[in-house]
Amino acid sequence: MPIVLRNGLVLTMDDRRTVLARGDVLADGEVIVAVGPDLEVPEGTEEIDASGGIVMPGMIDTHRHLWQTAMRGYGADWTLTQYFVWYYLEWGKKFRPQDVYAGNLLGGVEALDAGVTTTVDWSHGLQTVDHAEAAVDALEAVPGRFVLAYGNIQQAPWDWAPSADLRDFIGRRSWGDMLGLQLAFDVTGDPAFPEKAAFEAARDLGLPVTTHAGVWGATNDEGIRLMYENGFMTPETTYVHAATLSPDSYHRIAATGGSVSVSTESEQSAGQGYPPTWQLRHHGIPVSLSMDTSVWWSGDLFSAMRATLGADRSREHLEAHVKSETVTHCHLRAEQVVEWATRGGAAALGLSDKIGSLEPGKKADIVLIKNDASPVMFPILNPYGHIAFQAQRGDVHTVLVNGQVVKRDGRVGGVEAARAAVAKTVDHLMSELGDAWLSGMNPDIPETKILDNPYMYTDYRSS
């Protein structure tokens, strides 16, 4: 039946950034049919009271390793080096297809719970086609919109990307608006450019590439140069992190129309480099937001927006202070990070005609932020600032994806099924790792030396 959200503060995120202080959004079938005040609706329309809340487009996460969600919080004290060692070299190969399924199931439900209606599953744990089948089975079991970014960290991309197994897998599954497909692999900067075969496979399959670029100690400017000189930098390419690149590389990304997926919590904590929005703004590069992995960080874009504003403004102040100057007006505004979390993600995925804003004809991916029991949800004076700095996952009241209510009155479905699947995965990993389970979770703490203080007296009281 048609659904109307009534009397909310509506952030349309349309081209004019229209804000309705009191408006309605009407969805019928899969699409939005009207946005405005006091809409007339068909008989039998379900009405959802949005008064006292904010109605906004569903948020879009362009880079999340869903398969790792079953290990939520495990790597809270890791560096990027420890992450690489654990997943790439030591234990990532212990994940069975059912473990990838469990992580994707939980991660998908978690995304919907936080108002993220579209998620790019940067699925680099697909060691076999059976793992890939399990990943897609889980995504199809969750009523969200997903893009499978197919990857395999246990094998070189020039081996798996052109393989017949991958082509057969692609041919067996159904792809479309609810489930898209990309290839996910990184470029090492090897002058021989062995990744060329993987890019050619993506081109032959008509698929975009998403790649971790500008990651300290892993990917660098040479990878960007090789992609550019071989003609593989396209408007469909997503560069994840892009935190340690030179101006020349940023110019190449800007000139070829690519976009950057910024995972600020990740870049700040793991060590990919300083979150690059301050550079991306200077070079005019489109931005989307992502949260990376629940092994470390929160699985919602409220935290991503908040962290991104903080990091960008901190850098702006720091640069000014070095020159003995003062920043009197912030360049990055709350409205811009809300745009990156919605329209920015849609643009990065080539879906701007379908999602990212509340406009008639677009898919009915709609989020209501409302929590009458919370003292944080009133007053709502600056709606963009409220979303970026005040609201949290617990304030997501209602979520629609493709016109279907998937979270209602603060409760999302699928939690118990995900809980059961994840419990089996955790038991399996604990059994496989043995003592390494605890040691992996608790890396050594480096020794800290306190500086000698010239103002310390031997006996302060007698002085």
Describe the structure.
By secondary structure, the protein is α/β, with parallel strands linked by helices. It contains 15 helices and 17 strands. Strand 16 (404-408) and strand 17 (411-412) form a beta hairpin. Helix 2 (97-113) packs parallel to helix 3 and helix 2 (97-113) packs across helix 14. It is globular and about 70 Å long.
Map the helices and strands.
Layout: E1 3-11, E2 19-28, E3 31-36, E4 46-49, E5 54-57, E6 59-64, H1 80-90, H2 97-113, E7 116-123, H3 129-141, E8 145-150, H4 157-160, H5 164-172, E9 179-184, H6 196-205, E10 209-213, H7 221-229, E11 238-241, H8 247-256, E12 259-262, H9 264-270, H10 277-283, E13 287-289, H11 301-322, H12 334-348, E14 366-369, H13 383-390, E15 396-401, E16 404-408, E17 411-412, H14 415-433, H15 436-441
Parallel strand pairs: 1-4, 1-5, 6-7, 7-8, 8-9, 9-10, 10-11, 11-12, 12-13
Antiparallel strand pairs: 1-2, 2-3, 5-14, 14-15, 15-16, 16-17
Helix pairs in contact: 2-3, 2-14, 7-8, 11-12, 12-13
